[in-house]
């Protein structure tokens, strides 16, 4: 089975997910990519290098797992460990990936200073730093210096002066010269400030069109994103992977084809992608949530859907993954769909999510015995919430389920 997807759409979607995770960062990575593209044109980079630069820019902070406020603070204190940690985490996440390992070293060095200062143990100096990393380092600093609440033409000089002041220390002096040339173009600053310029930008970098991805490629991408979602959830740690295991198990028991089973695994891995929009403080709160905190949590399947459905070719996965809090009686959230709209794939992920949540140790509920889990889920099926046939299927083979529970609850 193959997917024909536009890689820009794929990265755009996932960089949007990252933006959500940073809690209010306004399109940081999109803007860094846009600035980097201007630099690439001025440097006359060849098409392939420009593409790698833009793709890296779109996900360069993939290793960040702190709030954007903290992230921003760490960036303003040149040379502190935090700043390097997220670059290293990003490298570790992608270095084994067939699709992205080419970009991993660029991410690793995107905060290395030109003169070698700083505490990054693996840092490089001067021209040993990959050019793509040097451009992102500069573009990142430009983006962070732009203030959204101020007219762009009254502040751009300050941004240029800030960059010039660090030429030869943090930034490659040759790139600073190139940036000075770029900075004379009013359109450059207007593109940064104009919230509607991004669609044009993404259209302009989509010229290479769609590529073919294998189902294993998509699984690998889903796995990376599940790891990012799960690391924000210290209580369960591996929730997305467990939901994927259970979804796969139920799909197989239901007689799905091998390709469909893998699609369900992918949907399980991605179901909580929108949780990146929920701050760590709320996700890890040990006490009961307030009403407004609960509303914030309830946004997550909406964002899972928004991100995935925008990637043409992933629409089925979007529905299977994002409808996991919908119920057959139409009382679920956020779309209030009913039995007619909820396909088997969506119903499987919903059942897998509930089962996983009940068998995981969480601070706000006691450990349930297996009999209790079955009782709770049968009750939900009887009240018209979840698919009865799937709940029965889940509990049909006690021995297999035992093995699965052990695996999924990490016992
Ligand atoms: Fe960064
Ligand atoms: Fe969820
Ligand atoms: Fe979940």
From TrEMBL:
It comes from the Bacteria. PANTHER family: 3'3'-CGAMP-SPECIFIC PHOSPHODIESTERASE 1 (PTHR43155:SF1), CYCLIC DI-GMP PHOSPHODIESTERASE PA4108-RELATED (PTHR43155). It comes from Megasphaera cerevisiae DSM 20462. Signal peptide: none annotated. Residues 236-358 form the HD domain. Residues 3-195, 214-410 form the HD-GYP domain. InterPro entries: HD/PDEase_dom, HD_domain, HD_GYP_dom. This is Phosphohydrolase. SUPFAM superfamilies: HD-domain/PDEase-like. CDD domains: HDc.
């Amino acid at each position: 089975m193959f997917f024909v997807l536009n890689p820009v759409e794929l990265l755009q979607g996932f960089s949007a997910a990252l933006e959500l995770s940073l809690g209010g960062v306004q399109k940081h990575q999109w803007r860094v990519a846009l600035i980097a593209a201007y630099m690439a044109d001025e440097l006359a980079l060849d098409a392939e290098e420009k593409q790698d630069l833009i793709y890296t820019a779109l996900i360069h902070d993939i290793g960040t797992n702190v709030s954007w406020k903290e992230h921003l603070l760490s960036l303003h204190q040149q040379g502190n460990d935090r700043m390097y940690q997220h670059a290293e985490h990003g490298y570790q996440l992608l270095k084994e990936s067939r699709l992205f390992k080419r970009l991993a070293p660029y991410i690793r060095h995107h905060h290395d200073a030109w003169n070698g200062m700083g505490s990054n143990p693996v840092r490089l100096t001067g021209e040993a730093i990959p050019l793509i990393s040097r451009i992102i380092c500069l573009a990142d600093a430009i983006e962070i210096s732009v203030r959204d609440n101020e007219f762009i033409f009254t502040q751009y000089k300050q941004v240029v002066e800030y960059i010039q002041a660090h030429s030869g220390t943090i930034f490659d002096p040759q790139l600073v010269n190139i940036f000075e040339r770029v900075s004379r173009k009013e359109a450059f600053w207007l593109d940064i400030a104009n919230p509607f310029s991004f669609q044009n930008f993404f259209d302009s970098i989509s010229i290479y069109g769609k590529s073919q991805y294998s189902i294993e490629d998509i699984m690998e991408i889903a796995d990376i994103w599940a790891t990012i979602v799960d690391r924000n959830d210290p209580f369960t740690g591996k929730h997305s992977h467990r939901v994927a295991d259970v979804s796969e198990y139920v799909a197989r028991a239901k007689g799905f084809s091998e390709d469909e089973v893998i699609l369900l695994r992918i949907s399980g891995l991605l179901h909580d992608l929108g949780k990146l929009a929920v701050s760590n403080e709320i996700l890890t709160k040990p006490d009961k949530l307030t009403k407004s905190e609960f509303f914030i949590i309830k946004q997550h399947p909406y964002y899972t859907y928004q991100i995935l459905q925008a990637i043409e070719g992933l629409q089925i996965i979007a529905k299977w993954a994002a409808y996991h809090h919908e119920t057959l009686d139409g009382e679920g959230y956020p779309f209030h769909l009913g039995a007619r709209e909820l396909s088997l794939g969506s119903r499987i992920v919903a059942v897998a999510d509930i089962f996983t949540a009940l068998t995981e140790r969480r601070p706000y509920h006691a450990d349930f015995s297996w009999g209790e889990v079955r009782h709770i889920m049968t009750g939900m099926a009887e009240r018209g919430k979840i698919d009865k046939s799937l709940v029965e299927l889940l509990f049909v083979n006690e021995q297999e389920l035992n093995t699965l529970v052990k695996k999924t609850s990490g016992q």
